[in-house]
Specification:
The complex is a heterodimer. Chain A contains five helices and nine strands. By secondary structure, chain A is of the alpha/beta class. Chain A has one domain: Rossmann fold, CATH 3.40.50.2000. In chain A, the strands form two sheets. Chain A has a seven-stranded parallel sheet with strand order 3-2-1-6-7-8-9, sandwiched between helices. In chain A, strands 4-5 form a two-stranded antiparallel ribbon. In chain A, helix 3 runs parallel beside helix 4. Chain B has one domain: Rossmann fold, CATH 3.40.50. Chain B is built from six helices and six strands. By secondary structure, chain B is of the alpha/beta class. Chain B has a six-stranded parallel sheet with strand order 3-2-1-4-5-6, with helices on both faces. Chain B is globular. Helix content of chain B is 37%, strand content 13%. The chains are: A alpha/beta, B alpha/beta.
Chain lengths: 161, 145
């Protein structure tokens, strides 16, 4: 199904962990990984030939997440430049919201977008899933309960494990 | 040893509840950025490999309900008590609850919504026989010609 070169785009933490699990399952290797900065990023750079870091859209104040306008502008610019530079034919997204801009720019340049909905989403759609569904070729849910909430492009094909 | 895993964030209510039971159980905690320091042995963070070693050694694991952690515990088929981080424990949202409930429905762990019930959950976990169903792999689907 995957045409190479493909790019995996994800966010730090659990999303990145799941992206790595997905890549363990796959024989094909991504041309690049796009992710926000996190503690795992340095080891990621040793393992994969090309790792692109995106700035995050939000800042955290304790438990409160606030959109940072300056950082958001930088995020949009970096997402655009990364999409231009990488020009993937296929993008596999594992969320979260920090991947949306990159996916839209990549789609603009002709990439097919495949979004894997986070495992947390059992009976409700994620914000990322809602935003990416219109431009997705396929949206892969990890629980069948979620299928009726999406349209015909959604599929259940198991887990990322 | 009972391993407590809270990831990189805070989960002080859980750590505090376990600390109150430290005379009954042998705990080891990975407590993240929490402000409360328990009297039992703990670390704040650790490399993934080290955490995996602790998971393998532990009799059972008390874990938050994050996808990364639960998927690791699934791989090791480890008896698990899942305590989802929730707004009432100071979390920003209840996003871990859906997955924790589903995990328990499938028989892959014991759901503990209230940290004050952790003692009862440990006893239940020791007696429970867990099931770990197999799931298809998205990676294989993506790789298929």
């Amino acid at each position: 199904m995957i045409k190479t070169p493909f790019v995996v785009v994800t966010d730090r933490g659990g999303h990145l962990h799941n992206a790595l699990k997905l890549m363990e399952q796959m024989e094909s290797r991504p041309a690049a990984i796009v992710s926000t900065h996190g503690p795992d990023i340095e080891s990621l750079k040793k393992e994969f030939p090309k790792v692109v870091e995106l700035p995050t859209l939000f800042r955290w104040f304790g438990k409160k997440r606030v959109l940072d306008p300056i950082r958001a502008c930088w995020h949009v610019l970096r997402s655009f430049l990364s999409a231009v530079q990488l020009r993937p034919r296929v993008v596999i997204s594992l969320g979260a919201t920090n991947v949306v801009m990159f996916c839209y720019f990549a789609r603009f340049f002709g990439a097919e977008i495949i979004h894997v909905e986070c495992m947390n989403q059992v009976k409700s759609k994620s914000v990322t899933g809602k935003l990416l569904y219109p431009i997705c070729k396929n949206l892969l849910v990890q629980w069948p309960e979620l299928l009726p909430l999406y349209g015909s492009k959604a599929r259940y094909e198991g887990w990322v494990l | 040893m009972i391993l407590i895993l809270v990831s990189t964030g805070h989960f002080d209510p859980l750590v505090r509840a376990c600390d109150e039971l430290r005379d009954r159980y042998e705990f080891f905690g990975q407590i993240g950025m929490g402000y409360f320091e328990p009297a039992f042995p703990f670390v704040r963070t650790a490399p993934p490999k080290e955490i995996q070693n602790w998971i393998q050694e532990a009799e059972l694991v008390i874990s938050h309900g994050g996808t990364g952690m639960l998927s690791q515990l699934y791989q090791y088929r480890k008896p698990t008590i899942i305590v989802p981080k929730q707004i009432r424990f100071g979390e920003a949202n209840d996003s871990q609850v859906e997955l924790a409930v589903k995990w328990a429905e499938l028989g892959m762990g014991i759901l503990c919504m209230d940290v004050n019930q952790i003692g009862a959950a440990i006893e239940a976990c020791r007696e429970r026989e867990f099931q770990f169903p197999q799931f298809r792999s998205i990676g294989k689907f993506l790789d298929a010609p």
